Amino acid sequence: MDRKVSWRILLGLAAQRVICDTCQAELVPITGELCLTCGRPLSKLKPEYIYDHDCSDCMKWRTSEFGDVLKFNRSFYEYNDFMKDILALYKFRGDVEAGRVFSAIFQDEIKKSYAYVDYVIPIPSSLERLYERGFNQCEVWIEGTEFHEKPILCRVNHEEKQSKKSRAKRMNRKEDMFQLLPNVTMTGKACLLIDDLYTTGTTLHYAAKTLKHAGASHVCSLTLCRG
């Protein structure tokens, strides 16, 4: 594939929020039998890492202090090299239009499968990342819609990027990552978290834990891709 041509096509169509056929062919939708909790394709795992339709990572979360704070996650695409390029352009080079082409699939899926939730909550960026990038990459996908509520969560403090940490360090961090903003009532509310990438699930589990401790009745998540 001619990468320059495909990026020109992708960005040229971004204003209409359409993905061209060339780029669409590079995106790999997640299909087949999935881990019932995190949405990971079980075909990618060896049998010894599968426990009755759940993966080993989810079993670790369930038997930890987190329990089942995050009911389930579902993702649209596999985190392949092409998706890595898109997210690099979107998140780290600040090209908002490269990510906005995915707004329609998020909004359509929320309307179709998550009409029951009370809050759709984009995972918040740190103040440093927000300043560098100029936007929250998750909030872009629901901006201008009825799902776009007032902010509910914020980052507790500056932290090293999750992508810089080892798998073990991600899953075994001790400090809280998020806090509820003032004057937010969460008791009995069903919440949908949205994020760009699910790898170990650390970010989403910490966000779900904060919401559950504030009284949320149900927390699930929807992510662009699954690593």
Automatic annotation (TrEMBL):
It comes from the Bacteria. Pfam families: DZR_2 (PF18912), Pribosyltran (PF00156). Residues 186-226 form the Phosphoribosyltransferase domain. Residues 15-59 form the Double zinc ribbon domain. Transmembrane segments: none annotated. Belongs to the ComF/GntX family. This is Uncharacterized protein. It comes from Guptibacillus hwajinpoensis.
